[in-house]
Amino acid sequence: MIKEKSLFAFLGEVSPLNILLVDDDMASQYVITKNLGLLNRNLDLCDSAHDAIRHAQRKNYDLIIVDLNMPVINGFELTKTLKITSQCNGSNPKVIGTTVMDHPLLPTLVMYSEVDDYIIKSADYGDLKEKIVNLCYLHQN
Question: CA 108, CA 72: separation in Å to the nearest integer?
Fold first, then answer.
């Protein structure tokens, strides 16, 4: 019997992305990494804004997944800094924010920030995979 691959898994094999995951919670890092499956071989993990900025200075990323509710520097502020840093290095990564709180103003905050899209953290990250496919593969500049 032939096992079908998801579009996400197929695209990850054909054109792997360099991904930076910025989250201060190790459990969230683990769950997201586990759910990304094949793409995690090109995945760098950071647990602080300072570490994320250092990574963005040294390496070009196609996608940055950032926790919007981090302490010290929130994800919206960090995203702006990461995009500026990346553009100085000649890359233009897409940014997907993650959060545990679904607030009515969240879509407005995202719309007026440097964050390209967002998801609500869950046990199933099918919505994250769908947004990665849409942002990074189907709508590439």
Answer: 22
Please give the model's pTM, rounded to 2 decimal places. 0.86
Q: How far apart are CA 83 and CA 107, in angstroms?
A: 20
More confident residue, 135 or 14: 135
Q: Are 96 and 65 in contact (CB under 8 A)?
A: yes
What is the mean pLDDT of the segment spanning 72-96? 90
Distance of CA 45 to CAs 40, 98, 117, Å?
Answer: 10, 14, 19
Q: Is the CB of residue 74 less than 8 Å from the CB of residue 101?
A: no
In a 13 Å sphere around the CA of 31, the CA atoms on its Cβ side amount to 14
Residues 6+ apart with CB under 8 A from 35: 124, 125, 128, 129
